[in-house]
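Posting this for the archive.
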Amino acid sequence: MQHTARAAPQVHKDRRDWQNLRGMLPFLWEFRGRALFALSCLVLSKVANVGVPLVLKEVVEYYERAKDDPVLLAAVLPVSLLLAYGLLKLSSTLFNELRDVVFAKVRYRAMRRLSTRVLEHLHKLSLRFHLDRRTGAVSRDLERGTRSVSQILNYMAFSILPIMVEFTLVAFILLRDYDLIFTLAMFGAVAVYVLVTFAITEWRMDFRHSMNRLDSEANNQAFDSLINYETVKYFGNEQMELRRYDGTLSDWEHWAVKSQTSMSVLNFGQGAVIALGVTLVMYLAMRGVTDGDMSIGDLVLLNAFMLQLFIPLGFLGIVYRQIKYSLADMDLIFKLLEREPEIRDAADAVPLEISGGGLRFAGVDFSYQPERQILHHLDLEVPAGQKIAVVGHSGAGKSTLARLIYRFYDVNAGTISIDGQDIRSVTQDSLRAAIGIVPQDTVLFNDTIYYNIAYGRPGATRQDVESAAAMAHIREFIESLPDGWESVVGERGLKLSGGEKQRVAIARAILKDPEILIFDEATSSLDTRTERAIQETLAEVAAEHTTLVIAHRLSTVVDADRILVMSSGRVVESGTHKQLLSAAGVYREMWELQRKEREATEQVAS
């Protein structure tokens, strides 16, 4: 597989920076008092900072006046001025640190709130979104996006606002005490500096966007490769995965080098503006001293102001770049938050009221994509307390039934109802609380076995958890492990076999104790002996519940009250096991085929 040609940078012209900044305000409102106090500390710190050059000027001018009186010069020190100088320096540091301490909770609480809100929103988005998403890329975007909130608050509180306050104070003093030319020269240099910074940084942003996109893509590739570790090993494709990953990183390297090179251009431009501005102001000041219009103290004051302005201004380019990058990262998160969930509760939705758990599909049409319909005017009923099985070949639409009952998708036409209530008219939380499922593909959390079983009912007692495990015939296995119930199952439960994972899922469903049970190929990964034991358990559990069994292996559903045979999204046969066998239709054909497969397997085993 060859690596594709390097893509041109993606330009994000549709960002809404001001709208996104306004979107941060709700996260700050919780600590508005702290934010205002931090702002007060910032102003006091800058007042003290600007006061330092003023005191320094007075010290210099004191010695200028005293230089003609050697006795006075030797005998008297300007103690009050020196104390004022020291106190102002100390106050500047104190208020700076106090601002940091007070504002820390604002920043980190905003990060916490946004992270929680994003995760909550991701859980609200439809299954369709999660099937399409790239987990690694979403993870990286989430990390950068939530971090960007802290960075922007940090830059605003510790860089932008302090510079603005200090500039305002310095401008006031310059306009009050000196010719207008000094204000124009100093702030003219600042204006040119800002324009150069903004212009070059805007040009550089395309490189950063490309770096971010490729960084997310590389992260997703690495993540995907590790999730599919066993598949990579099965086919010996380690080198292919490395080439794919390195190819993406090669593109990332290309744009990263361009970004760094353009940064050097920006740094040189900023340095040139600063050099010219300082030279011009100092020339004007020295000419004023030579002409006798200004004192040495004025020269020292202007020099100190220049240093105080241009030292933080030297970081303005970096701050501006980082704010632009953070705004780009934040835009990803706010666009994600604006994505509307496909499935929503109706405005007048009420909690589901269970009287028996009767389930009914009436004239249901459904398709994942418009061009390929899965269910065709499906009528299906699971009477309260009965066990109904749905069988059929792969692709018949069986597993789609479970997704529709859970309302992961809405039907295109028709209705699905529980005890006569359309599931679209009840709340999703109450609907899903009434249903328990043992899926065909069981995915576990990378936590302990106890945690994964208890997940079915988080408030359950340990005795309830152990009892559910015993009913699922997995308790003995758990207690034989070195770490017992505290054994960690690994990413997606990969440390357990397919049968062990399925029994954990069965225990979890038993613990939940819902009114409606769905078994979607619930014993497909079990050996014959364990399957028979589990079948007895499932029969016992199902006896007290409304149960829908979705199966391919017909031997698991012979005891069902009724068996529905699906083909191409339609029910083509219906009846008990005996009735369907005698009908000599699709069911009997499937039964004979599976019987021959079992006999062949048993002969090989013997």
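Strands lie at 359-369, 372-382, 387-391, 413-418, 421-422, 435-438, 516-520, 546-551, 562-567, 570-575. The longest helix spans residues 238-290.
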